[in-house]
Amino acid sequence: MYNLVMTLLIIVSFLIIIATLMQPQKQQDALNALSGGAVFSGQTKKRGFEALMEKITAVLLAIFFLLAIILAILSSK
């Protein structure tokens, strides 16, 4: 059981890295913040691919933390 959870944790870790790297970059938002651009430009609702990648990343992170807790419980026994 311990080896299965550890393997799943490693797989989810790689998937989190891939999902994070696939998210669109926000260079323009950082540039606007430094140059005094529109303050509320980051408040727009995310759509399409950006929203999907954000949801996938959030789900993968939840799975990661759940697996990490299960692994900690299993290793303490």
From TrEMBL:
User: What's the superkingdom here?
Assistant: Bacteria
Enumerate the Pfam families for this protein: SecG
Which InterPro entries does UniProt cross-reference here?
SecG (IPR004692)
Record keywords: Disulfide bond included?
no
Q: Which family does it belong to?
A: Belongs to the SecG family.
Main role? Involved in protein export. Participates in an early event of protein translocation.
- What NCBIfam families does this protein's entry cite? secG (TIGR00810)
> What's the protein called, per UniProt?
Protein-export membrane protein SecG
